[in-house]
Amino acid sequence: MTILCVRFQLPPTGEAALSGLLGLLEEFTPVVEALPPDAALADLRGAERYFGRDAVELASVIRVRALALYGVDCVIGAGPGRMLARMAMKDARPGLTCAVTEEEGADFLAGKPVAALPGVGTATARTLCEYGLDTLGLVAAAPLSTLQRLVGARVGRELREKASGVDRGRVVPNAISRSLAAERPFTRDELDPDRHRRSLLAAADELGARLRALDKICGALTLTVRYADRSATTRTRTLKEPTAHSAALTRTAYEMYEALGLQRARVRSLSLRAESLGPAEQASHQLTFDPADEKLRRIEEVADRVRARFGPHALMPGSLAA
Questions:
Q1: Bridge-based pairing state of the strands 39-43 and 32-35
Q2: Model confidence pLDDT, tens digit, residues 161-188
Q3: Per-residue burial over 173-193, b = 16 or more CB atoms within 10 Å of its CB, e = otherwise
Q4: Closest by CA position to 120, among listed 95, 92, 149, 87
Q5: Which residues lie below 8 Å from residue 127, measured CB to CB, with a gap of 6+?
Q6: Is 110 left (phi over 0), alpha (psi -120 to 50) or beta?
């Protein structure tokens, strides 16, 4: 076991602490992959040799340091690769690392539903379940030719390998600075969809202003909804074109929120994260004859100059929305 998947149990307003927690992991290994909003993967192959401890022992040290330095507990899964580590993390509990060895991989996965496997979407899971392949054990035992007929040659081969515990995934180091986040917590668990939308509007407006101040554009947007029971739903959508335009970010945020179909959900906080950042000069704005859109862009330019002169709180949040 050389890979850890660590999920930090951040408070509703604690996402800003993620960069510091990632720095804590980097004290053990430089091979750390951030999984915003609250998790990370760490390859401890070199750390095991250097510290003379295995991954489970190092996980205990990481947990204690996260509690001592940041007051944040964490759940940790350990495995030979990123897939098994992520699956193990879902079975872990605070204070106890769930570890799965390469030899235990197939048995660990056998009873789990196919939808639990990372990368298996709703449509693929539905197709497999229609043919009685509703657990990973049944998928691993199915003939390869059958799976390839159902989901395609490449996907069928990869699915059978993963269901059998073959984990070829690697940790790819990245930087949390390649994203920007704006979070809107509620003073009490909020049921009103209109208040949810106003919070998303304010968060998108903040992200747009910060991106433009940094001369950046983003290629994707991630919405995280945290509920009263401490669970969360995260959705990511690639933008039609990279942008720092607040109205475009707001539209995408609304679309993701509506797609969740929340019915009387008690929401504790909403956050938006701008992903896949790049320099603003690489933006390719699609020309439009919509005067309202062009007017909004001109208003944004004026508002940005006001913020630059009088500070980021010079304007009401969401005041630029149509």
A1: antiparallel
A2: 999 988 888 888 876 556 678 888 898 9
A3: ebebeebbbbbbbbeeebeee
A4: 87
A5: 150, 151
A6: alpha
